[in-house]
Amino acid sequence: MVIGDNRKYCVALVTVDLDEVERFARTQQLEVGDRTALVQHPKVVELIETEVQTVNQQLASYESIKYFRILDRDFAQETGELTPSLKVKRKVVTERFRNLIDQMYD
After folding, report:
1. What is the arithmetic mean of pLDDT over 76-98?
2. Which residues contact 22 (CB under 8 A, 6 or more apart)?
3. How many CA atoms lie within 13 A of 51 on its CB side?
């Protein structure tokens, strides 16, 4: 989810396919105990950063993502972050992850 409305720049909360990240970790021979630690591993962060930079190349400077944080889980209906039609409830996500968002703007 990209955040940037009425802000100086855009930031993003990124969710990943944890099965794919685990596969990537095995190919890179990364030793990580749990999924939460895995998404914070420097190699995984580097992989996501490369993808974000690739997307940023197609965007104007004011649209580009300056900072991001990788979440250790997907948004879900059960946690109230998605509607029944699987649209992100931006207000709920913004409130739930306010600390992470504020860190990116500090």
Report:
1. 96
2. 35, 38
3. 12
Q: Give the model's pLDDT for residue 64.
A: 96
Q: What are the tens digits of pLDDT across the range 19-29? A: 899 899 989 99
Label residue 34 by pLDDT band (50, 70, 90): confident
d(CA 48, CA 70): 8
Task: Evaluate whether 4 touches 11 at the Cβ level (below 8 Å).
Answer: yes
Residue linked to tokens 């996500």? 93
| CB contact set of 52 (below 8 Å; sequence gap of 6+) | 12, 14, 65, 68
User: Can you tell me the distance from the alpha carbon of 10 to that of 29, in angstroms, rounded to the nearest whole number?
Assistant: 33
DSSP string over the chain: -EE-TTSSSEEEEE---HHHHHHHHHHTT---SSHHHHHTSHHHHHHHHHHHHHHHTTS-TTTSEEEEEE-SS---TTTTSB-TT--B-HHHHHHHTHHHHHHHH-
Q: Alpha-carbon torsion 85, 81, 47, 41, what sign?
A: negative
